Amino acid sequence: MRSPRGLSLRLRLVVAGAVAVVLALALAGTALVALFATHVERRAGAELTVHLDQLLAGLDRGSDGMLVISAPPADPRFGQPYSGLYWQIESADGLIRSRSLWDWTLSLSEDPQVDGGVRKSRLAGPQDTELLVMERAVTVPQRLGGGSLREAVAMDTAELAAARDAFAAGMMPYLAVLAAFLILAAGAQVAVGLRPLSALGSQVAALRAGAVARMGGAWPSEVRPLASEIDALLDEREQEVRRARARAADLAHGLKTPLQALMGEADRLRDAGDDAAAEGIEEVAAAMRRIVDWELARARAAAAQARDLRTPVASVAEGIVSVLRRTPEGAGLDWRIEVPVDLAVRLDEADLSEALGALAENAARYGTDRVGLVAEVAERVARISVVDDGPGIPESRRTALTDRFARADESRARHGLGLAIAAGIAEAAGGRLTLADAGPGLVATLELPVA
């Protein structure tokens, strides 16, 4: 199960925005429904107050001297039993009710009221209903005999609840559409806002591939500090590489004179007839020289990561073959070069010569009749192969031969740095060295990024 910390920023922001939108619209919907219910109740109270006025206007004295409603409200629901709309008058003459109340009596409050003031309340109604009641106390005019009375008009609150629920149900689709629109808008906003981060990742990938040298400063203010720190880190790295190359060069120059002195001492010993001592000194000097070459190759290969390089492969291959054809081991071989003229790799020319030369030297050393240098490109990767027809290398030993000081023929006084140097240069440039069987012979392939 993925940890919450592993979720993408885009997903986090979209989910948080969606939750915020849903909560905000839920609160807004609840508030709107409550506001609508209040409005409906206020309108219902106004209508009930009109009915109160109509009741008061219809008051009269009957032939028996009792108060009667000569002109009841016109709403037909007052004449239907338990219709949900009722009126009632209490006076000294008794109780007058609408036909809709049937056998039910409104239990009005006993609190004294200001004459003419309307009071709103909720009471229990017939058939387990709840009623919204508007009532008031009125002083009867002298022409109707004087005194006071209480009149009340009530309606079933189920009608108010039904209107509220209908409003909520009708509003839900619109809220859902609004929520979807706002969530999509939030997603678009997140996509636009995080686009610089995607561009940042692409720029870092371009840095790693060597397509660009720096992050640059064309970034939003929130991202610019990170880009600046990356550029500063790259500057420090290049300075460290330059210092490392300088130290390696100083080491090489510092050892050059002692190595030459050792070789001169070996020549004097050989002239004196001490061939065994001369060969020993030459072997030690050769080992020291190859170690120096190894360190120089590592420093140059590390620098390849920090520069925009472009080296034609064909010219380097032709130069290497031209030199090896003049050596005793390569003079009798048939050299074949099949490299596209326009192929260039992202590697320093000296580094490519070092790596490809080491492979070609091994091929010349162990090849019997022919050696081929073949190159092809696949998915922005150059595959430069050196193929010989020698005895080859057992598969069990191929990986070990790319380690320093390993060699295929333990009987010869050679120090096996060639394959290791080539592998180190290829890896530092973002590629690799592979060894395969040529049947007979060996195929050593450098895989390097295309410039």
UniProtKB/TrEMBL annotation:
Entry keywords, A to Z: Kinase, Membrane, Phosphoprotein, Transferase, Transmembrane, Transmembrane helix
Annotated Gene Ontology cellular component terms: plasma membrane
Enzyme class: transferase
SUPFAM superfamilies attached to this UniProt entry: ATPase domain of HSP90 chaperone/DNA topoisomerase II/histidine kinase (SSF55874), Homodimeric domain of signal transducing histidine kinase (SSF47384)
One Pfam family hit: HATPase_c
Catalytic activity: ATP + protein L-histidine = ADP + protein N-phospho-L-histidine
TM region(s), chain numbering: 12-37, 174-194
Alphabetical list of PROSITE patterns matching this protein: HIS_KIN
Listed GO MF terms: phosphorelay sensor kinase activity
Cited InterPro entries: HATPase_C_sf, HATPase_dom, His_kinase_dom, HisK_dim/P_sf, Sig_transdc_His_kin-like_C, TCS_sensor_his_kinase
EC numbers for this chain: 2.7.13.3
Main location: membrane
Domain Histidine kinase: from-to ranges: 250-451
Origin: domain of life: Bacteria
Subcellular location: Membrane
Gene3D superfamilies for this protein: 1.10.287.130, Histidine kinase-like ATPase, C-terminal domain
UniProt name for this protein: histidine kinase
Naturally occurring in which organism (per UniProt): Histidinibacterium lentulum
